[in-house]
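Record type: ASSEMBLY
Status: queued
Input:
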Amino acid sequence: MIKYLKSIWEARYFWLHLANAELRYKFRRSRLGLLWTIINPMMLMLTITLILGNLFGIAAEDFAPYVFSGLIVWEFLLGAAIGGCQSLLVSEAYIKQFKHPLVIYPLRTILVQTATFLIAIQAMFLWILITDPSKLLPGILTLPITVVCLFLLGWPIAILTSSINLKYRDFAQVLALVMQLLWYMSPTFFRADMFKSPQLIALLEYNPITHIMNLVRAPMLYGSLPSAVDFGFILGLAALLYLLAIWRMSRVEKTLIYYF
Amino acid sequence: MSQCYIHLKDATLLYPSSPYNALTLKEEVFKILNLGKPSRLIYDVQALKNVSFEINEGEKVGIIGRNGAGKSTLLRAIAGVYPLQSGEIETKGKIRAMFEMNLGFEFEATGRENITYRGLLLGESPKSIKEKEEQIIEFAELGDFIDFPIKTYSAGMLVRLAFSISTTVNGEILLLDEFLGAGDAAFQTKARKRMAEMIDQAKIIVLVSHDMNYISQVCNRLIYLKNGQVIADGPPDQVVRHYLDSVGVGAKK
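Status: finished
Output:
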């Protein structure tokens, strides 16, 4: 295990460079480039705020940042899960010629997703700068923790989805459907005060995604640190995911090369 | 500093058929309902069978054999890319594998950027690549095209770039799989010279080729592989003769 981790570190120039290249490639031909990272969630947020905000009777200035913060975290998780599916497939050329630990390819995907997240969250900072500057400091201070937590969660997700998708190419489709389902249950736009039934509120509380989103919401919307419960869920989920990823890779890593 | 080596002991490698035998949903259903014929199953392929040999520092070993004998598989096993089913491979020394030249190119990126990619892929640090960059660009003779995305390159230009990058990074153990490709005549001469330099500098070479002349010139030991097994292992003349006789190409001398 230590040897494996060491070999990941030794390949660091390589995967850092891969991540770099992918980020530049993403915006190579587009005119607005990086701005799309912000425009996309922003447009979606406007739609949701107007429609659902009206439906539930929540004020737009209140609802908009809630939705936006949820959206950018959701985008990250989606990118980790579904973008992660492709991470081994697209690296076929490298894998077949050079002996590097395979987890560096999902790592590259997560680095790209993290960078995208960091760009998108600038819009949040801009918003609270204008509307509620008191939340700016907690936002900035907790940003490193947020980023580290997201990264820690994202990597094993990408490792798992990429190794499964390599063997069973249908998996990405199935996962997309599952994520679509989860989207409608997700706390991206649902808030506890929207519900009267205690069961629905409990569902929201037990959904780990609620707590992941609190990483951004707690400091930037409410000016506080994410709660112990939030961290409990996050670390617990991360521990579970890493165990799964380590178990999976220790079993299949050597033979994955045959599934291209 | 202790010597480099490659030790193989009873190395056996299997290409599993399971990735190819996976049934689609329709076939599964048909199978359950007993309708229609199942398509013929592919079986596992024994690519290497109990291969054992030792290569020590200073040896330049050529691997010859018919197509499908397991030569490329053997190289990839030594490179650590394909896992063994049983047996051991132990290597000491920095391995440089030169298999397919165009692998690992990012087509949207420029030639210059690809130099960095390839270099990093080979285990160099950004600093050391920077140092070698000028040398590589000069050898490839691409002029201003070095800053164009490589998807604009012609096939020959790609080959020149690929070769130029691959041969700048040296290693102690070189694994070459029929590496010399196309390129115009002038470049071919330069390329052969560069290859000769690389081969001289490396401590161990394992080379796969079908060019009997080239391989006898370059190597001081040949291994003849047939159906994944070592049939002959010795000085070039002997093994080449054995090979040619057994495939019936025989004494046209």
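Annotation: Residues 2-259 of chain A form one domain.
Annotation: Chain A has eleven helices and no strands.
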